[in-house]
Design brief:
The longest helix is centred in the first third of the chain and has 21 residues, at about 40-60. This protein folds into three domains: about 5-120 and about 165-195, HUPs (Rossmann fold); about 210-265, Adenine nucleotide alpha hydrolases-like domains (SH3 type barrels), CATH 2.30.30.280; about 270-355, Translation factors (Elongation Factor Tu (Ef-tu), domain 3, Beta Barrel), CATH 2.40.30. The protein contains eight helices and 17 strands. A hairpin with a 2-residue loop joins strand 14 (about 310-315) and strand 15 (about 320-330). Helix 1 packs across helix 6 (about 170-180) and helix 3 runs antiparallel to helix 4 (about 95-110). It has about 350 residues and is α/β, with parallel strands linked by helices. The radius of gyration is 21 Å and the shape is globular. The chain binds adenosine-5'-triphosphate. Adenosine-5'-triphosphate (ATP) binds next to helix 1 and strand 2. Catalyzes the 2-thiolation of uridine at the wobble position (U34) of tRNA, leading to the formation of s(2)U34. It comes from Jilunia laotingensis. One of its GO terms (cellular component) is cytoplasm. One of its GO terms (molecular function) is tRNA-uridine 2-sulfurtransferase activity.
């Protein structure tokens, strides 16, 4: 019998994971991970509600639940990484780092190592090909979360189970309703990470403060507004600029001078690009192209968490990874991960940082 650790968040997805595992005859041990923001009251209270719901699920299935505190590790690793990127004017992706370093990193080292498998409610799949385990996309393209998993490594992917990855969200909810789970109708969370739960601007303000600077129209060089620090703004951002007569898009930042450049209107060329470089490219399972002569590969990819997979080509030249998109891309934000899939968008191959 497989010895399974199930990560239970108190949400509907991971509760259905527990239900399905029990239906299949497994007796998983349940773990809730605490990573809240220190001293932040609404965080503590949402965590308490989550833990309560997790306890109800554990009781319902007669399973043991442990609360693991990875709060310090989260702040030392994920929050520190996010702030460092933001200071550099880049766009971090804490969800990606949280999966790599916390849910499947620290958790694995402290707890997961004693289990054969770790099960989660991520919308993703694993599949075997050429004798190896690969990360596969979810059946539900809108919910697919493989982009958040694109920095995990082979050891991690080969012991993960995603019991709901082959289901549509609607099916998951129906299972929850039929099983009478208390959270069947609960709203979807935005991720384990602080960005999903607390206000992004509050977080940034607390650690980086405020410093007024100019908002300048990129094409004309005209000052059209004031911002409170370039670190509140992201390439491609449209909302929250406080400018009238929009739409306005952030197209460039000067972090030395604390200037945010914007372009006006849809269809403005400055907000689009068709290619980008990826640094520190990471293959989850293996480099599927290592033996091919021509490193010009038809792929699909994502540059942010969207349901669409964009078609393109990956060019590997002298160890450098360049992606050419089949169409125009809005807001290519340095620091974000470019996630590479096979042409059919079935396999998540790996990712690198847009730079
Ligand atoms: N605090 C936590 N403790 C333990 N596991 C967690 C926690 N937060 C998330 N997870 C695990 O990671 C998975 C994906 O997390 P995400 O935050 O994207 O949740 P979700 O898709 O809304 O799922 P759920 O409905 O289970 O919260 C969850 O299904 C769960 O297995």
């Amino acid at each position: 019998m497989k010895n399974i650790a199930a990560l239970l968040s108190g949400g509907v997805d991971s509760s259905v994971v527990v239900h399905l595992l029990c239906e299949q005859g497994f007796r998983p041990t349940l773990f809730y991970i605490k990573i809240g923001m220190e001293g932040e009251e609404h965080m503590d209270c949402s965590a308490e509600e989550d833990i309560e719901l997790a306890k109800v699920i554990a009781r319902k299935y007669g399973l043991s639940l442990e609360v693991i505190d990875l709060h310090r590790q989260y702040w030392d690793n994920v929050a520190a990484y996010a702030l460092e990127k933001i200071k550099k004017g880049q766009t971090p992706n804490p969800d990606v780092m949280c999966n790599k370093l916390i849910k499947f990193g620290c958790f694995e080292q402290q707890v997961g190592k004693d289990f054969d498998y770790t099960a989660t409610g991520h919308y993703a799949t694993t599949l075997e090909q050429d004798g190896k385990i690969w990360l596969g996309t979810a059946k539900d393209p809108v919910k697919d979360q493989t982009d958040f998993l694109a920095q995990i490594d082979y050891l991690q992917v080969s012991k993960l189970m995603f019991p709901i990855g082959h289901l549509m969200k609607q099916e998951v909810r129906e299972i929850a309703l039929n099983a009478g789970l208390p959270n069947a109708r609960r709203k979807d969370s935005q991720g384990i990470c602080f960005l999903g739960k607390i206000d992004y601007n509050d977080f940034v303000r607390r650690f980086l403060g405020e410093r007024e600077g100019a908002i300048i129209e990129f094409e004309t060089g005209k000052r059209i507004g004031t911002h409170r620090g370039y670190w509140f703004h992201t390439i491609g951002q449209r909302k929250g600029l406080g400018l009238s007569g929009g739409p306005w898009f952030v197209v460039k930042k000067d972090i030395e001078e604390n200037i945010v450049y914007v372009s006006h209107g849809y269809g403005v060329e400055t907000q689009y690009g068709t290619e980008f470089m990826l640094s520190d490219f990471h293959f989850i399972t293996d480099d599927p192209w290592k033996d091919s002569e021509r490193k010009d590969i038809a792929i699909t990819f994502k540059i942010r968490h969207t349901p669409e997979f964009t078609k393109g080509r990956l060019l590997i030249e002298d160890g450098k990874y360049r992606v050419l998109s089949s169409g125009k891309l809005q807001g290519i934000a340095p620091g974000q991960f470019g996630v590479i899939y096979d042409e059919a968008a079935k396999l998540c191959i790996g990712s690198g940082e847009i730079g």
